[in-house]
Amino acid sequence: MSDYAKLLPSTNAASWAGRPFHRQWLMRQANNLFDFFQETSIDPDGGFYELDDKGNALNADHNICQIHTATRMVHCFAVGALIGRPGSDEMVDHGMRFIWERLRDERHGGYFWSCDRNGPVNTIKQAYGHAFVLLAASSAKLAGHRLADQMLADVTEVINTRFWDDKRGAVREEFNADWSPVAEYNGQNSNMHMTEALMAAFQATGEKSYLDKAERIAELIIGKHAVAMDYRVAEHFDGDWVLDKSYLGNEMFRPAGTTPGHWLEWSRLLLQLWTLGHKRLSWMTDASRQLFRRSIELGWDDKHGGFFYTLDWDNKPVMTEKLWWPLSEAIGAAAYLSDHDRDQFFQLWYRKLWDFAANHLIDTKSGGWRSELTTDLRPSARLFTGKPDIYHALQACLIPLYPTTGSLANAIIEADHTSHY
Length: 421
What we know:
InterPro entries: 6-hairpin_glycosidase_sf (IPR008928), 6hp_glycosidase-like_sf (IPR012341), AGE/CE (IPR010819), AGE_dom (IPR034116). Helix 5 (127-142) packs antiparallel against helix 6, helix 7 (188-205) packs antiparallel against helix 8 and helix 9 (260-276) runs parallel beside helix 11 (324-340). The protein is built from 14 helices and eleven strands. It is globular and about 55 Å long. It is mainly alpha-helical and 421 residues long. It has one domain (3-418): Glycosyltransferase.
Protein backbone atom coordinates (compact mmCIF):
# COMPACT_ATOMS: atom_id res chain seq x y z
CA MET A 1 0.00 0.00 0.00
CA SER A 2 1.27 3.47 -0.86
CA ASP A 3 2.20 6.08 1.74
CA TYR A 4 -0.89 8.02 0.64
CA ALA A 5 -3.13 5.06 1.35
CA LYS A 6 -1.70 4.67 4.85
CA LEU A 7 -2.81 8.20 5.71
CA LEU A 8 -6.47 7.41 5.12
CA PRO A 9 -8.45 5.47 7.72
CA SER A 10 -10.23 2.48 6.25
CA THR A 11 -13.64 3.93 7.12
CA ASN A 12 -13.01 6.70 4.59
CA ALA A 13 -12.20 4.29 1.79
CA ALA A 14 -15.82 3.69 0.79
CA SER A 15 -16.41 4.04 -2.91
CA TRP A 16 -16.99 7.55 -4.17
CA ALA A 17 -18.79 6.27 -7.24
CA GLY A 18 -22.05 5.79 -5.33
CA ARG A 19 -22.00 9.11 -3.51
CA PRO A 20 -24.50 11.63 -4.92
CA PHE A 21 -22.17 14.62 -4.71
CA HIS A 22 -19.35 12.83 -6.48
CA ARG A 23 -21.69 11.64 -9.22
CA GLN A 24 -23.00 15.18 -9.71
CA TRP A 25 -19.44 16.51 -9.77
CA LEU A 26 -18.41 13.99 -12.42
CA MET A 27 -21.34 14.82 -14.66
CA ARG A 28 -20.62 18.53 -14.22
CA GLN A 29 -17.02 17.96 -15.32
CA ALA A 30 -18.22 15.99 -18.33
CA ASN A 31 -20.64 18.77 -19.24
CA ASN A 32 -17.85 21.34 -18.97
CA LEU A 33 -15.81 19.31 -21.44
CA PHE A 34 -18.74 19.14 -23.85
CA ASP A 35 -19.15 22.92 -23.52
CA PHE A 36 -15.48 23.53 -24.25
CA PHE A 37 -15.30 21.33 -27.34
CA GLN A 38 -18.77 21.86 -28.78
CA GLU A 39 -18.67 25.62 -29.15
CA THR A 40 -15.70 26.10 -31.48
CA SER A 41 -14.54 22.69 -32.71
CA ILE A 42 -16.54 22.41 -35.94
CA ASP A 43 -14.69 23.39 -39.10
CA PRO A 44 -17.42 24.50 -41.53
CA ASP A 45 -15.28 23.18 -44.39
CA GLY A 46 -15.24 19.72 -42.86
CA GLY A 47 -13.86 17.95 -39.83
CA PHE A 48 -12.90 19.52 -36.55
CA TYR A 49 -10.37 22.02 -35.32
CA GLU A 50 -7.95 21.27 -32.55
CA LEU A 51 -8.20 23.94 -29.86
CA ASP A 52 -5.74 26.15 -28.02
CA ASP A 53 -5.71 26.68 -24.27
CA LYS A 54 -8.57 29.19 -24.48
CA GLY A 55 -10.75 27.04 -26.73
CA ASN A 56 -9.99 28.88 -29.98
CA ALA A 57 -9.33 27.03 -33.22
CA LEU A 58 -5.73 26.21 -34.02
CA ASN A 59 -4.66 26.65 -37.66
CA ALA A 60 -8.09 27.94 -38.63
CA ASP A 61 -6.84 29.22 -42.00
CA HIS A 62 -5.50 25.84 -43.06
CA ASN A 63 -6.98 23.14 -40.91
CA ILE A 64 -5.70 19.60 -41.43
CA CYS A 65 -8.03 17.21 -39.64
CA GLN A 66 -6.54 13.88 -38.65
CA ILE A 67 -8.56 10.72 -38.52
CA HIS A 68 -8.26 10.19 -34.77
CA THR A 69 -9.49 13.75 -34.12
CA ALA A 70 -12.64 13.30 -36.20
CA THR A 71 -13.45 9.80 -34.99
CA ARG A 72 -12.92 10.57 -31.31
CA MET A 73 -15.21 13.57 -31.58
CA VAL A 74 -17.88 11.35 -33.14
CA HIS A 75 -17.49 8.76 -30.40
CA CYS A 76 -17.64 11.34 -27.61
CA PHE A 77 -20.62 13.22 -28.96
CA ALA A 78 -22.42 9.94 -29.67
CA VAL A 79 -21.95 9.34 -25.95
CA GLY A 80 -23.30 12.88 -25.43
CA ALA A 81 -26.39 12.02 -27.47
CA LEU A 82 -26.95 8.87 -25.45
CA ILE A 83 -26.86 10.72 -22.12
CA GLY A 84 -29.13 13.47 -23.49
CA ARG A 85 -26.70 16.31 -24.22
CA PRO A 86 -28.43 18.79 -26.60
CA GLY A 87 -26.42 19.61 -29.70
CA SER A 88 -24.64 16.26 -29.78
CA ASP A 89 -26.48 14.82 -32.77
CA GLU A 90 -25.32 17.66 -35.01
CA MET A 91 -21.71 17.10 -33.95
CA VAL A 92 -22.00 13.37 -34.68
CA ASP A 93 -23.54 14.00 -38.10
CA HIS A 94 -20.86 16.53 -39.03
CA GLY A 95 -18.12 14.09 -38.10
CA MET A 96 -19.68 11.04 -39.71
CA ARG A 97 -20.15 12.81 -43.02
CA PHE A 98 -16.56 14.06 -42.93
CA ILE A 99 -15.17 10.58 -42.25
CA TRP A 100 -17.32 8.95 -44.92
CA GLU A 101 -17.02 11.60 -47.63
CA ARG A 102 -13.51 12.97 -47.10
CA LEU A 103 -11.33 10.45 -45.27
CA ARG A 104 -12.59 7.31 -46.98
CA ASP A 105 -10.55 6.24 -50.01
CA GLU A 106 -13.14 5.46 -52.68
CA ARG A 107 -10.50 4.06 -55.05
CA HIS A 108 -8.48 1.66 -52.90
CA GLY A 109 -10.67 1.35 -49.81
CA GLY A 110 -9.78 2.22 -46.26
CA TYR A 111 -9.36 5.59 -44.61
CA PHE A 112 -6.64 8.21 -44.99
CA TRP A 113 -4.77 9.60 -41.99
CA SER A 114 -5.65 13.24 -42.69
CA CYS A 115 -7.11 15.70 -45.15
CA ASP A 116 -7.78 19.41 -45.55
CA ARG A 117 -10.46 21.25 -47.50
CA ASN A 118 -8.69 20.36 -50.78
CA GLY A 119 -8.39 16.63 -50.21
CA PRO A 120 -6.10 14.04 -48.61
CA VAL A 121 -2.90 15.33 -47.01
CA ASN A 122 -1.41 12.20 -45.46
CA THR A 123 -2.62 9.12 -47.34
CA ILE A 124 -1.06 6.54 -45.02
CA LYS A 125 -3.51 3.94 -43.73
CA GLN A 126 -2.88 2.96 -40.13
CA ALA A 127 -4.51 0.33 -37.97
CA TYR A 128 -4.64 2.99 -35.22
CA GLY A 129 -6.87 5.24 -37.32
CA HIS A 130 -9.07 2.39 -38.51
CA ALA A 131 -9.58 1.28 -34.91
CA PHE A 132 -11.10 4.68 -34.17
CA VAL A 133 -13.28 4.54 -37.29
CA LEU A 134 -14.63 1.26 -35.93
CA LEU A 135 -15.19 2.83 -32.50
CA ALA A 136 -16.90 5.89 -33.96
CA ALA A 137 -19.19 3.82 -36.17
CA SER A 138 -20.08 1.51 -33.27
CA SER A 139 -20.97 4.38 -30.93
CA ALA A 140 -22.82 6.22 -33.71
CA LYS A 141 -24.85 3.06 -34.36
CA LEU A 142 -25.99 2.99 -30.74
CA ALA A 143 -26.87 6.68 -31.04
CA GLY A 144 -28.93 5.94 -34.17
CA HIS A 145 -26.94 7.71 -36.89
CA ARG A 146 -28.01 6.93 -40.45
CA LEU A 147 -24.47 6.24 -41.76
CA ALA A 148 -23.37 4.03 -38.91
CA ASP A 149 -24.30 0.62 -40.33
CA GLN A 150 -22.70 1.43 -43.68
CA MET A 151 -19.50 2.70 -42.13
CA LEU A 152 -19.36 -0.18 -39.66
CA ALA A 153 -19.65 -2.74 -42.46
CA ASP A 154 -17.08 -0.93 -44.58
CA VAL A 155 -14.39 -0.52 -41.95
CA THR A 156 -14.95 -4.07 -40.68
CA GLU A 157 -14.27 -5.44 -44.15
CA VAL A 158 -11.10 -3.34 -44.41
CA ILE A 159 -9.87 -4.52 -41.01
CA ASN A 160 -10.63 -8.15 -41.84
CA THR A 161 -9.06 -8.16 -45.30
CA ARG A 162 -6.18 -5.69 -44.92
CA PHE A 163 -5.12 -5.38 -41.31
CA TRP A 164 -6.00 -8.60 -39.51
CA ASP A 165 -3.16 -11.14 -39.28
CA ASP A 166 -4.91 -14.33 -38.28
CA LYS A 167 -1.65 -16.22 -37.83
CA ARG A 168 -0.43 -13.75 -35.19
CA GLY A 169 -3.79 -12.80 -33.72
CA ALA A 170 -3.23 -9.07 -34.14
CA VAL A 171 -3.52 -6.25 -36.66
CA ARG A 172 -0.73 -5.16 -38.97
CA GLU A 173 0.40 -1.60 -38.41
CA GLU A 174 0.22 0.45 -41.62
CA PHE A 175 0.13 0.59 -45.39
CA ASN A 176 0.47 3.10 -48.20
CA ALA A 177 -2.66 4.34 -49.94
CA ASP A 178 -2.53 1.46 -52.48
CA TRP A 179 -2.04 -1.07 -49.65
CA SER A 180 1.63 -1.63 -50.38
CA PRO A 181 3.53 -2.22 -47.10
CA VAL A 182 5.34 0.63 -45.36
CA ALA A 183 7.81 -1.03 -42.99
CA GLU A 184 8.36 -4.20 -41.02
CA TYR A 185 6.97 -2.80 -37.79
CA ASN A 186 4.20 -3.91 -35.44
CA GLY A 187 2.95 -1.80 -32.56
CA GLN A 188 0.95 -2.54 -29.45
CA ASN A 189 -0.78 0.86 -29.34
CA SER A 190 -2.77 0.28 -32.52
CA ASN A 191 -3.68 -3.19 -31.28
CA MET A 192 -4.74 -1.86 -27.88
CA HIS A 193 -7.12 0.63 -29.45
CA MET A 194 -8.32 -2.02 -31.87
CA THR A 195 -9.20 -4.12 -28.82
CA GLU A 196 -11.25 -1.22 -27.44
CA ALA A 197 -13.01 -0.76 -30.79
CA LEU A 198 -13.66 -4.48 -31.32
CA MET A 199 -15.41 -4.68 -27.96
CA ALA A 200 -17.55 -1.68 -28.87
CA ALA A 201 -18.42 -3.25 -32.23
CA PHE A 202 -19.31 -6.52 -30.52
CA GLN A 203 -21.72 -4.75 -28.21
CA ALA A 204 -23.19 -2.67 -31.03
CA THR A 205 -23.80 -5.66 -33.31
CA GLY A 206 -23.72 -8.85 -31.24
CA GLU A 207 -21.28 -10.39 -33.72
CA LYS A 208 -18.89 -12.60 -31.75
CA SER A 209 -16.09 -12.42 -34.32
CA TYR A 210 -15.25 -8.97 -32.98
CA LEU A 211 -14.87 -10.31 -29.45
CA ASP A 212 -12.80 -13.25 -30.63
CA LYS A 213 -10.30 -10.89 -32.27
CA ALA A 214 -10.12 -8.70 -29.15
CA GLU A 215 -9.32 -11.74 -26.99
CA ARG A 216 -6.57 -12.87 -29.33
CA ILE A 217 -4.93 -9.43 -29.31
CA ALA A 218 -5.03 -9.33 -25.52
CA GLU A 219 -3.45 -12.78 -25.35
CA LEU A 220 -0.57 -11.66 -27.58
CA ILE A 221 0.12 -8.20 -26.14
CA ILE A 222 -0.54 -8.93 -22.47
CA GLY A 223 -0.78 -12.68 -21.96
CA LYS A 224 2.41 -13.39 -23.88
CA HIS A 225 4.57 -10.27 -23.91
CA ALA A 226 3.59 -8.15 -20.87
CA VAL A 227 3.41 -11.10 -18.49
CA ALA A 228 6.90 -12.16 -19.60
CA MET A 229 8.14 -8.64 -18.81
CA ASP A 230 6.72 -8.61 -15.26
CA TYR A 231 3.60 -6.72 -16.37
CA ARG A 232 5.30 -3.97 -18.30
CA VAL A 233 3.72 -3.44 -21.71
CA ALA A 234 6.17 -3.55 -24.60
CA GLU A 235 5.34 -1.05 -27.34
CA HIS A 236 7.41 -1.85 -30.43
CA PHE A 237 8.01 -5.06 -32.35
CA ASP A 238 9.48 -6.11 -35.67
CA GLY A 239 7.53 -7.77 -38.45
CA ASP A 240 7.67 -11.14 -36.66
CA TRP A 241 6.44 -9.72 -33.34
CA VAL A 242 9.88 -9.86 -31.77
CA LEU A 243 10.40 -7.06 -29.22
CA ASP A 244 12.51 -4.20 -30.58
CA LYS A 245 14.09 -2.40 -27.61
CA SER A 246 16.16 -0.19 -29.91
CA TYR A 247 13.13 1.39 -31.61
CA LEU A 248 13.16 5.20 -31.36
CA GLY A 249 10.01 6.13 -33.29
CA ASN A 250 8.07 9.34 -32.73
CA GLU A 251 8.15 10.80 -29.22
CA MET A 252 4.47 11.76 -29.33
CA PHE A 253 2.83 8.69 -30.91
CA ARG A 254 5.51 6.00 -30.75
CA PRO A 255 8.01 6.96 -28.05
CA ALA A 256 10.93 4.70 -27.20
CA GLY A 257 10.90 2.52 -24.11
CA THR A 258 7.68 1.83 -22.23
CA THR A 259 4.63 4.01 -21.58
CA PRO A 260 2.91 3.46 -18.20
CA GLY A 261 -0.26 5.15 -19.47
CA HIS A 262 -0.79 2.18 -21.77
CA TRP A 263 -0.42 -0.26 -18.88
CA LEU A 264 -3.30 1.60 -17.23
CA GLU A 265 -5.37 1.56 -20.39
CA TRP A 266 -4.93 -2.18 -20.72
CA SER A 267 -5.83 -2.61 -17.05
CA ARG A 268 -9.35 -1.36 -17.77
CA LEU A 269 -9.69 -3.00 -21.17
CA LEU A 270 -8.84 -6.41 -19.75
CA LEU A 271 -11.64 -6.18 -17.20
CA GLN A 272 -14.06 -5.13 -19.95
CA LEU A 273 -12.94 -8.05 -22.08
CA TRP A 274 -13.15 -10.50 -19.18
CA THR A 275 -16.72 -9.38 -18.46
CA LEU A 276 -17.85 -9.50 -22.08
CA GLY A 277 -16.31 -12.97 -22.42
CA HIS A 278 -18.55 -14.29 -19.62
CA LYS A 279 -15.65 -14.17 -17.15
CA ARG A 280 -14.11 -17.36 -18.48
CA LEU A 281 -10.56 -16.01 -19.07
CA SER A 282 -9.51 -15.66 -15.45
CA TRP A 283 -5.92 -14.66 -16.25
CA MET A 284 -7.24 -11.26 -17.33
CA THR A 285 -8.33 -10.18 -13.84
CA ASP A 286 -4.93 -10.84 -12.28
CA ALA A 287 -3.22 -9.13 -15.22
CA SER A 288 -5.48 -6.10 -14.80
CA ARG A 289 -4.51 -5.75 -11.13
CA GLN A 290 -0.83 -6.27 -11.81
CA LEU A 291 -0.72 -3.74 -14.65
CA PHE A 292 -2.31 -1.10 -12.44
CA ARG A 293 0.00 -1.77 -9.52
CA ARG A 294 3.12 -1.77 -11.71
CA SER A 295 2.13 1.54 -13.27
CA ILE A 296 1.83 3.06 -9.80
CA GLU A 297 5.07 1.45 -8.59
CA LEU A 298 7.19 2.44 -11.58
CA GLY A 299 5.33 5.24 -13.38
CA TRP A 300 4.02 7.50 -10.60
CA ASP A 301 6.20 10.43 -9.52
CA ASP A 302 6.29 10.15 -5.74
CA LYS A 303 7.80 13.62 -5.37
CA HIS A 304 5.54 15.79 -7.52
CA GLY A 305 2.70 13.49 -8.51
CA GLY A 306 1.51 12.48 -11.95
CA PHE A 307 2.67 9.73 -14.28
CA PHE A 308 5.93 9.98 -16.17
CA TYR A 309 5.27 9.72 -19.89
CA THR A 310 7.95 7.11 -20.66
CA LEU A 311 10.46 4.85 -18.90
CA ASP A 312 13.60 3.20 -20.20
CA TRP A 313 14.21 -0.54 -20.00
CA ASP A 314 15.72 -0.12 -16.53
CA ASN A 315 12.44 1.52 -15.41
CA LYS A 316 14.03 4.97 -15.14
CA PRO A 317 11.97 7.99 -16.27
CA VAL A 318 13.00 9.35 -19.67
CA MET A 319 10.23 11.69 -20.79
CA THR A 320 9.12 13.18 -17.49
CA GLU A 321 6.23 15.30 -18.77
CA LYS A 322 2.93 14.65 -17.02
CA LEU A 323 0.23 14.28 -19.68
CA TRP A 324 -3.50 14.35 -19.17
CA TRP A 325 -4.28 11.06 -20.89
CA PRO A 326 -2.38 8.61 -18.60
CA LEU A 327 -4.06 10.21 -15.60
CA SER A 328 -7.44 9.90 -17.33
CA GLU A 329 -6.82 6.25 -18.14
CA ALA A 330 -5.72 5.60 -14.57
CA ILE A 331 -9.04 6.95 -13.31
CA GLY A 332 -11.00 4.67 -15.62
CA ALA A 333 -8.91 1.67 -14.58
CA ALA A 334 -9.26 2.48 -10.87
CA ALA A 335 -13.02 2.81 -11.29
CA TYR A 336 -13.22 -0.61 -12.93
CA LEU A 337 -10.95 -2.27 -10.41
CA SER A 338 -12.79 -0.70 -7.48
CA ASP A 339 -16.02 -2.15 -8.81
CA HIS A 340 -14.60 -5.65 -9.29
CA ASP A 341 -12.13 -5.93 -6.41
CA ARG A 342 -12.56 -5.30 -2.68
CA ASP A 343 -8.94 -4.27 -2.17
CA GLN A 344 -9.04 -0.69 -0.87
CA PHE A 345 -5.84 0.06 -2.78
CA PHE A 346 -7.80 0.74 -5.95
CA GLN A 347 -10.41 2.99 -4.37
CA LEU A 348 -7.76 4.95 -2.51
CA TRP A 349 -5.92 5.52 -5.77
CA TYR A 350 -9.16 6.47 -7.49
CA ARG A 351 -9.48 9.29 -4.96
CA LYS A 352 -5.83 10.31 -5.23
CA LEU A 353 -6.04 10.43 -9.03
CA TRP A 354 -9.07 12.68 -8.98
CA ASP A 355 -7.31 14.91 -6.43
CA PHE A 356 -4.45 15.31 -8.89
CA ALA A 357 -6.77 16.00 -11.81
CA ALA A 358 -8.77 18.58 -9.86
CA ASN A 359 -5.71 20.39 -8.53
CA HIS A 360 -3.48 20.33 -11.61
CA LEU A 361 -5.22 19.33 -14.85
CA ILE A 362 -8.77 20.67 -14.84
CA ASP A 363 -8.67 24.27 -16.06
CA THR A 364 -11.49 25.95 -14.17
CA LYS A 365 -10.79 29.35 -15.74
CA SER A 366 -10.51 28.58 -19.45
CA GLY A 367 -12.21 25.20 -19.64
CA GLY A 368 -10.99 21.78 -20.65
CA TRP A 369 -8.05 19.90 -19.20
CA ARG A 370 -4.43 21.01 -19.46
CA SER A 371 -2.79 18.53 -21.80
CA GLU A 372 0.77 18.70 -20.48
CA LEU A 373 2.68 19.61 -17.33
CA THR A 374 6.40 19.73 -16.61
CA THR A 375 7.97 17.37 -14.11
CA ASP A 376 7.21 19.85 -11.33
CA LEU A 377 3.65 20.40 -12.61
CA ARG A 378 3.91 23.70 -14.46
CA PRO A 379 1.84 24.05 -17.68
CA SER A 380 3.92 23.10 -20.70
CA ALA A 381 3.60 22.60 -24.45
CA ARG A 382 6.67 20.68 -25.56
CA LEU A 383 4.69 17.74 -26.89
CA PHE A 384 1.11 18.97 -27.12
CA THR A 385 -0.16 22.40 -28.08
CA GLY A 386 -3.38 23.59 -26.53
CA LYS A 387 -6.15 21.17 -25.54
CA PRO A 388 -6.35 18.79 -28.47
CA ASP A 389 -8.60 16.03 -27.21
CA ILE A 390 -11.89 15.44 -25.37
CA TYR A 391 -11.79 11.64 -25.56
CA HIS A 392 -9.59 10.63 -22.61
CA ALA A 393 -10.84 13.19 -20.09
CA LEU A 394 -14.52 12.67 -20.97
CA GLN A 395 -14.27 8.94 -20.46
CA ALA A 396 -12.56 9.47 -17.11
CA CYS A 397 -15.57 11.52 -16.02
CA LEU A 398 -18.24 9.16 -17.31
CA ILE A 399 -16.86 5.64 -16.83
CA PRO A 400 -17.35 5.74 -13.02
CA LEU A 401 -21.02 6.67 -13.49
CA TYR A 402 -22.06 3.61 -15.46
CA PRO A 403 -21.94 -0.19 -15.18
CA THR A 404 -18.42 -1.59 -15.51
CA THR A 405 -19.59 -4.29 -17.88
CA GLY A 406 -18.30 -3.16 -21.26
CA SER A 407 -17.92 -0.21 -23.57
CA LEU A 408 -19.07 3.19 -22.34
CA ALA A 409 -21.78 3.81 -24.96
CA ASN A 410 -23.38 0.44 -24.32
CA ALA A 411 -23.06 0.89 -20.55
CA ILE A 412 -25.13 4.07 -20.82
CA ILE A 413 -27.88 2.19 -22.65
CA GLU A 414 -27.70 -0.62 -20.11
CA ALA A 415 -28.09 1.86 -17.26
CA ASP A 416 -31.09 3.45 -18.99
CA HIS A 417 -32.77 0.06 -19.25
CA THR A 418 -32.41 -0.62 -15.53
CA SER A 419 -33.23 2.87 -14.20
CA HIS A 420 -36.56 3.83 -12.71
CA TYR A 421 -36.66 7.56 -13.39
